[in-house]
Amino acid sequence: MRSLTFPCFLRHRISIFSGTGSPLTAVRLSSLATDLELPPITSDILLDSIKSSQWHIVEHLSDKFTPSLLSTTLLNLVKTPDLALGFVNHIDLRCLDFQTQCLAIAVVSKLSSPKPVTQLLKEVVSSRKNSIRDLFDELVLARDRLETKSTILFDFLVRCCCQLRMVDEAIECFYLMKEKGFDPKTETCNCILSLLSRLNRTESAWVFYADMYRMEIKSNVYTFNIMINVLCKEGKLKKAKEFLWIMESFGSKPTVVTYNTLVKGYSSRGRIEGARLIINEMKSKGFQPDLQTYNPILSWMCNEGRASEVLREMKEIGLVPDSVSYNILIRGCSNNGDLETAFAYRDEMVKQGMEPTFYTYNTLIHGLFMENKIEAAEILIREIREKGIALDSVTYNILINGYCQHGDAKKAFALYDEMLTDGIQPTQFTYTSLIYVLCRRNKTREADELFEKVVGMGVKPDLVMMNTLMDGHCASGNMARAFSLLKEMDRLNVNPDDVTYNCLMRGLCGKGNIEEARELMGEMKRRGIKPDHISYNTLISGYSKKGDTKHAFMVRDEMLSLGFNPTLLTYNALLKGLSKNQEGELAEELLREMKSEGITPNDSSFCSVIEAMSSLDAEKSDS
After folding, report:
1. Distance of alpha carbon 578 from the chain centroid
2. Is 70 exceeded by the pLDDT of residue 32?
3. Of 205, 277, 355, 576, which one is least surrounded by beta carbons within 10 A?
4. Which domains does the chain have, with CATH numbers?
5. How many C-beta neighbours within 10 Å does residue 345 have?
6. Which spans of this chain does UniProt mark as PPR repeats (predicted)?
7. Is 70 exceeded by the pLDDT of residue 281?
8. In terms of Cα–Cα distance, which of 560, 556, 551 is closest to 572?
9. Distance, C-alpha 72 to centroid of its chain
10. What is the pLDDT of residues 364-373, one digit of tens each?
11. How far is 594 from 591, CA to CA, in rounded Å?
C-alpha cells in the first residue's frame, strides 16, 4: 500500500465521506474519523500544502503550528517570497510570536513590490506591543538568519512609520540604521523630511537634513523641493528662492514642482507680485505653468474678492479650472457671505462634468449655517442623502456645531446619535459643540456628565473644550465648579490661556467680586499669560456696574498705556457707570472723545448719556 502525505490523506478521507455509499456507512466512517490519529505535521507536509495552494488545510491546522515549525517553513520559502506571503495571509500574523513575525516580514521583504511588507510592518507597529528599537533589533536577527546583505527591510520600516505619522519612531529607526552602519536610501530620508514638513516641525527638519549631509546621503530633486517648502512655511521666501541656486550647484535641476512650491509659498503670504515673478522665471526656464501653479494664487485673491483677475489670466493661457479651483472659489465666496455666487460656481462645476466633493458640500453647508440659513442647509443635506452619499465626520461636525450655535440641542444630539450608529467616531470638536449647547441652555449638570463621559472614554479634553465648559459654569454663577475646572486643567496638562482667565474674571465680575477678578489678572500675568483688551474691558464693565467709575477709568488708563485701543464696549461700559452715578457732564465729554476716536456710538451709548444728563437737567430746573 502506498504511503500518503498529509494533504493526500486528507483528500482521500474526504472522498470517502462524500462518496455514494449508504448513509449509515458514511455516518460510521465519519464517527470513526474523529478518533483517527492524524500524522504529525512536519515542515515537508506544510510546504506541500503551501506549494499546492491548499490554503484550506493551512487555515484548518494553523492552531497546531509551533514557532519552530513556522520558522523552518518560512526559511524554506526564502526563494519563493510570493508563497511566503500567501502563507502569512492565510494565518493570523497577530497569533505568531514576535520572533516569527519578524522572520515572516524579512522573507516577504524580498518581493519586488514594497506594499506587502509595508502592510505587515504596519500590523506589527500599530499593535505597539514592542518598542521600535525591539522591532528593529529583531528584524536585524531575522535578516542575519536569511544571510542577506540587503538593508531595504529597514528602509521599509522607516517608511511604514512615516505612513503611520509616527515621525519620532521613524527618526529613531534612521539613527539605529546609522549605528549599524546601514545606509538609508535618499527616498527613505525624503519620507521623514516630508512628514516633518507636513507636521510643521521645521526646526526638526533642518536638524535631520544636516545629519543627512554629514552622513553623505545625497539629496535629490525631491529633497530640495521639500526643504524649499520648509523655508516657505517658515516665511523665509528670499532664502527659499536662493535655494534654487544651491539646488543647481548640487546637480539637481528645478522642476515644475519646485517652482509651484515657491509660488504657493509667496501666495500663502499674500506676496502675489512675488509669486508672479516666480511664474515669469518659470516660463523663462521653459516650464509651462499649470493649475497647481495658479490655484494657490486663486485662493489668496479669492479671499481678497479678486478671483476674476486670476480666472481671466488662467483663461488666457488655456487653463480650465478643475475641481480644486472650483472648491477654492466656493470656499472664498462662502467665507465672504456671497452664497449666491458660491452656489453658481457649484452649478458651473457640475456643468463642466465635475462631481461636487465632500469638501464642496461641507463648505456650502458651513456657509449656510454661518448666514443663519438653516432650512437651505437642511435641503442641501437631503440632496446629499438622495444621491446616496454617506455623511463623513466633517459633515456631521459642521451640522452638529451649526445646530449647537443656534441653540437647537435636540437636532444636535439626534445627529450625534446618528453619527454613532453610522460607526463614525466623534471628535473633540463634536463633544465641545455638544457641551457648548448644553451650557447655553443652562444645563451645566448634563454638560458635566458629558465631559466626564468623554474623559472616561480616554479622550483627552483640549483647551477649547475646557474653556467652553468653564464659561458655561461662569455664566450660571457656579464659580466653585469653574475654579475646580482650572485645577483639573493643570492635572490634565492643559495650559490655560487668556480666554480661560477672561471667563473666570467675567464670572467674578458678574457676582460683584471685582477685586477678586483684579487679583486673577495678577495671577494671569504671573503665569506668563498677557491680558488682552477683553480682560481690561471685563474689569472696566465690572467696576462701572458697581458705580466705581474712579477704578474703571484707572483700568482704562492702564489699558491705554499698554497700547490697547478702547472699543465700543469700553466706552459703553464707562458711560453706564457715569449714568449710574448721574455724572452727565463727564458722560457728554466721553461721548465727544468717543467720536473723535472714530468710534460710532450706538443706541446703548446714547441711552446712557441721556440718563446721565437727565439728572443734570433736573438740577437746572430745580434751580
Report:
1. 49
2. no
3. 355
4. 65-215 (1.25.40), 219-315 (1.25.40.10)
5. 24
6. 150-184, 220-254, 255-289, 322-356, 357-391, 392-426, 427-461, 462-496, 497-531, 532-566, 567-601
7. yes
8. 556
9. 44
10. 999 999 999 9
11. 5
- CA dist., res. 574 & res. 549, Å (int): 7
Q: Contact, 569 vs 552, CB < 8 A?
A: no
Q: Is the pLDDT of residue 380 over 70?
A: yes
Burial 551-573 (b: 16+ CB within 10 A, else e): bbbebbeebeeeebebbeebbbb
pLDDT band, very low/low/confident/very high, at 14 (cuts 50, 70, 90): very low
Q: CB–CB of 146/102 below 8 Å? A: no
Contacting residues for 346 by C-beta, under 8 A, at least 6 apart: 326, 330, 356, 360, 364
Contact 250, 212 (CB under 8 A): no
C-alpha distances out from residue 389 to 175, 355, 398, Å: 46, 12, 16
- DSSP symbols for 273-330: HHHHHHHHHHHHTTPPP-HHHHHHHHHHHHHTT-HHHHHHHHHHTTPPP-HHHHHHHH
CA end-to-end span of the chain, whole Å? 136
Query: How many percent of the chain have pLDDT more than 90?
Result: 59
Looking at 61-75, 433-447, 581-595, which range is the least confident one? 61-75
The pTM of the full predicted model, rounded to 2 decimals, is 0.72
Residue 50: which residues within 8 A CB-CB, separation 6 or more? 58, 73, 77, 83, 86, 87
Mean predicted confidence (pLDDT) in 258-280? 94
CA distance 328 to 322: 10
Q: Identify the H or E element spanning 143.
A: helix 132-145
- Rounded-to-integer distance, Cα 498 and Cα 535, Å: 8
Candidate from 32-46, 194-208, 290-304, 458-472 with smallest mean pLDDT = 32-46
- Give start and end residues of each alpha helix (H) in 2-89: 6-17, 23-33, 43-51, 55-61, 67-76, 81-89
283, 584, 616 from 589: Cα distances, Å: 62, 9, 14
Let me know the angle formed at the C-alpha of 377 by 372 and 383, rounded to the nearest 5 degrees. 170
Cell readout for 591 is: 461721548
pLDDT digits 0-9 by tens, 390-449: 888 999 999 999 999 999 999 999 999 999 999 999 999 999 999 999 999 999 999 999
Decide: 378 and 402 in contact? Cβ < 8 Å.
Answer: no
pLDDT in tens, 334-349: 988 899 999 999 999 9
Per-residue burial over 499-522, b = 16 or more CB atoms within 10 Å of its CB, e = otherwise: bbbbbbbbbbbbeebbeebbebbe
